[in-house]
Every structure is written in C-alpha cells, then in structure tokens.
C-alpha cells in the first residue's frame, strides 16, 4: 500500500512553487486594500456623522433665526391689534424700526381682512404690490382663512414675488376669528434671507438646497467644488410649511476630516508584502540551490553506490556462475588453494567431489538447451542447500559440479556428504512443468592422500569420476593408487584415436547369428576393433567411451558403415553373399540429419542391396528425441535397411515405439539369457518378449548364448536367432568364411537340438 506523504513535506513543496511569492504579494495587496477600504469607510462614516451634526445644527439655527422673525412680526401684529386706530405714520415708523433691526425683510405689509395689501414699507421698489390681493389662489385663500381662525402665523412657502424674484411671505394674524383685523406680513427674498441667515457660515463649506414637498425649492451653491457622494438632509420645524435642508459638503471641508493613515497603511502593507515576497523568493532560490546541491550529492552518492554495486557485481560475476548462481570454477579453485593451505597448517583433511549428471547430454540434445539450462538451475538450487561454513558447491561447466568439504575428520564424514548429495536427486526435478528423474555420478579425492595441491586433487577427483562412470553411473568412487596410470593410458588413447581414423587402424570383426530353424548363419553383427600399433588389439570398451566424450563417435560410425558395405560387396558371388551385416549406431550418430543420405550413398557406391544391412540401436537411443528419431528411422527404413532394437528388456521396454517405429528385429539382452534355463523369472520374461515380438511381426535374436541348455530353451520357444560364444565368437572376415564352411554347430549340438 502506498504510504501517505508527510504534511510537512507537502507544505514545503507548496512553498517551493514558483508562483507562491506572487500569491503572497497579492495576499498582502488584498489585505492592504481591505485595510485602506476599512479606514476609508471609517472616515466616510465619521465625515457623514459630522456632516449630519453640522447640517442639524445649521437647520436648528435657521429655524431659530426664522422663528425670531416670525415672533417680531407677531409682536407687530399684537401692537396693531391693541391699537386698531394706529395712524399709518406710527405704523410706518414701527415698520422702519423693524426693517432696521431685521435687515432680512424685503418689505413689511398690512393686509386687511379682504386679503388686500393696504400699507407697505418701504414703498421704494414695492409700489407695484400696493392693493394686491394675496389670496391669489384657492390654496392661499384657504391657508389665510385658517390662519385668521386660529391666530397662528402662515408662511406662504417659496413663491414668485410680485416685486420680482423668489421669496416667501410670513403672515402674522391681527387677532383671530371675528376679531381679525388682517395680517402683518413680512416679505423675504430668498437670496437675501439665505445671505443674512446662513451664507457666512457655509460659503466655503457646504452647498445648500431647500426641499419643499420633495423637490428643490431653492439652492444656495458654494464657490468650492463639492463632494456629491456625501449629503445630509435635516427637516425644519416651521409652522405651516414642510421644509428640509440638504447640505452637500465641499471638498476643502471634507479634506479637513481626511487622514493620510489609510494610504500610509496601504503603502506599508504593500511594501511589507513586497519584502515578504522577495524574502520568500530569496528563500526559494536558496532552497532550490540547496536542493540542487542535495540532488547533485544524491546523484553522486547514487553513482558511487552504482559503481560500488558494479564492482561488487563484477566481483560476484568473477566468483559466481551466471546461470546457476553457484561459485564458478575460478573462484572455487582459488578458495580450494586457500583451504588446502589452512588444512596443511592445521593438519586437517579436505575432500574434493567431482559430480557429473547422468544422461544429461542426451536430455540436453533431445529436449533442447533451454531444458538443459533449466535442469541445471534446479539441480544447483538443491545442491546449494548443502552449502555451509564447511561445504562449498561450485559449477564447473557442462553438467559437472565441484564440492569441497573442509575439516574432514574421517572418511565417514565424506560418505555422509555423498549420501546428502544423492538425496538431492531422490525426487524428480520439475522442468517446464514436467517431472524428470536424473541421477549423478561422483568421484572423490581426499587431501592429502590423493594430492597435495588443488590441481592434482582436481585431476584425481576427475579420474575417480571417470572410473565411477565405468562402473555403471549413479554411484561414487574414491581415488586410489593406480587410477592415475589408467587415466594416463586413457588420455594417450584419446590422443591416438584421431590418428587411428587417419591411419586406418580400425577393423571389423563379425559374430555370426544362428537361424534356429535352418541351423545356418543368416546374419552377422559387425564389431569394431582397434589394432593399435603399440598396444595391439584394443577392445571397444576402452575406446568407444572416449569416442563418445570427444565427439569422434560419428566419424567412427561412418567408417563402420563404409567398412560393412565394402565387406558385403566383397562377399558378393561367394558362399557368404546371403549374409546380412548388423552394425551398431549411437544416439549421437542418429542425431545427424544427413545420416540416412549417407547410408544410402554408401549402399549405392558399393552396389549392395539395402536389405543386407541392418542398423542396431539401443532402446535409449530410440526414445531420445522421439520425433527426430522417428523421422530418421523412417527414412532409413524406406531405403530397405533393417532396423533392430539392441539390449531389449533392460531399458524402457515401451510398447509404443514397437508399434510406431519400423522395427524388424528385437535383441533380448544377455542378462535374461544367462540364467534363462535356471531362473523362472528370466524364462518368463524371455518367453513374453518372444511372444510379444512375434505377435507384432518382429523377429527375435537372443544375445549371450553360451550353453546348450540356453540354446535348447530358445529353440523350444521359437526364438528366431541366437548369438553368443556357443554359436561363435567375433572374428575377422577371413576366419568367418572358414567357420561358416565348417558349420556353426557341432553334430552333437545339432542332434540335441
């Protein structure tokens, strides 16, 4: 399962992103903007509150000043009420006094009960209104009548004056109800009223607007520019009119309440953001440089580790076999030399075991090299389990292994290890999904008895291995004195074997086969002999295994085919012309694709009929690489050459190849014939083989016939042919003619048969 990344690592990776300083700068810019907007908003609120306070104060003062004028008019109306007969001159004097005291009046008028202006002061500039009826509309009449009834002043609101211009009129009733004697009215021009009441206070601070019934009735603009987004409206508490005063501040007034701190805060935060961003950028550069340095360091360390690993691999490759994983021959020999040095110093014994896999070459050739490699790996895995501080297992090459055992106390220690090695082969090996049983042959050399250095010990273990193979494989052999002499002789024979082919030192001997029906020889088996110039006649048992190991067996086999064909041609037109010659072929020879063509060419060149030649193969050769061998044998059989299975009964004895292969003859192995007249089991097996072969249409030859009891048994059970010393030993061709002329069986044997 994938491990989660640490939180700190994730944070560091986010901080290392290239855009992070920009994000920080934008964050500080947003904070600075927010703070400035907050401070500006606070200032705006403060300005709005101050504007409201001053507007309210201005409205109250305006109310008070205006009400003072109304009170003055009411006092004048009360005096007129008290003196209904007041002369006009007295009234004018009082009016002029009021005009002097209150410079805001445009004019003071007396209006009679019929709402007509009768008296007027001053006359100058106001002549046109004398005799003017102020109830010029139903609304004005209704308002004036209501003022007469209640005795409360009436204000006309902002109107167009008859004298010209815009103004307003305040009507103070003289008495009330039926006692009303008209009105004392004060006429105000708006410009003059505003100038007298408020203009000095607001000229450089505000622009004013008088709101009546929701619309601007009069505006008083300042000489200074105004901040239109700020304004405040305050209601005026005046009798009979609904006015509001709206004030709009000028920029100079508003700037008095502005502070530099919002901008200072904004600039400070932006500067701080720039510094922090630059610091982060610098930190990123430093961290990136450190990371680059660390990465470079890790790369250097990785390269160093890789080089160390390569050196270790090279050292391991120098000491280990790449296929099996075991120690290779070079390392094993170096370790063996060191082990022998230690053993010499401590006076200890060391055992060297050379091991060879039986039938490996056959399996490798028949099933393929990939199979062979896989089998070697499986064997190596089992053998490697034996390795410990006392035992080293190595792969020598091919199908050979070497095992060194240190601290050997006595020979029983070595025998115990040999038993462990054999137990490794007790179970079949699974190769390519199929079980394969295999055995091993071992040769043992013990230091110091069998050699005092590694090379001699190895050579003697190899000699012991060869002797173990001669004894029948799947066994072991200790090196003993005298083996070396035989090995030297074997090596000399191996060297001379190549000269034997060139010098025509081989010859064929022929052992006759007796036809038990006609008591005549119908065929002979050709057996090769080596007439060595110095050693004399060398038996096949000594040089055939050498030829198998060296690969010369194919050349020898072809020489045998040629020699047999030449002999058959020599026997033509003689009393031996009826004979058939049987020659033995090995599995290696059968593997050669051109073998059938070679046999056919030899028969053609010698002018010999193909049925006079018989090819003998062991059971093992038949089943090795079955598909290939079946094709080879089919081609040979199509030539007309007879095919025989040699040593039948001791191998696989499979009925399948008897059915599938073109077999003409079975040769019962001599191991069954030796005691066929004494042991019931051998007799039963021999009879079964004869009956089986006859039922399949195959003739039977019994090998190793040496007694007349054996011959009688074979005759009584319809065996077709007999071969053995009783019939005749292998002999040269010249002696064979004499033997056949004299007859194969003495008269006594013929009679007994």
From TrEMBL:
Species name: Marinobacter daqiaonensis
SUPFAM superfamilies given for it? EAL domain-like (SSF141868), Nucleotide cyclase (SSF55073)
Query: For the CHASE domain, which residue ranges apply?
Result: 112-197
What transmembrane ranges does the database entry give?
Answer: 260-287
Keyword field contains Acetylation: no
Molecular function GO terms recorded: cyclic-guanylate-specific phosphodiesterase activity
GO CC, one annotated term: membrane
Question: Which keywords does this chain's UniProt record carry?
Answer: c-di-GMP, Coiled coil, Membrane, Transmembrane, Transmembrane helix
Q: What is this protein called?
A: cyclic-guanylate-specific phosphodiesterase
Matching entries from InterPro entries are given as: Biofilm_reg_signaling, CHASE_dom, CHASE_sf, EAL_dom, EAL_sf, GGDEF_dom, Nucleotide_cyclase, Rev_trsase/Diguanyl_cyclase
Look up keyword Transcription regulation and say if it applies: no
Q: What class of enzyme is it?
A: hydrolase
| Compartments where located | Membrane
Where does the protein principally reside? membrane
Enzyme Commission number(s) from the entry: 3.1.4.52
Q: Where are the annotated coiled coils located?
A: 283-320
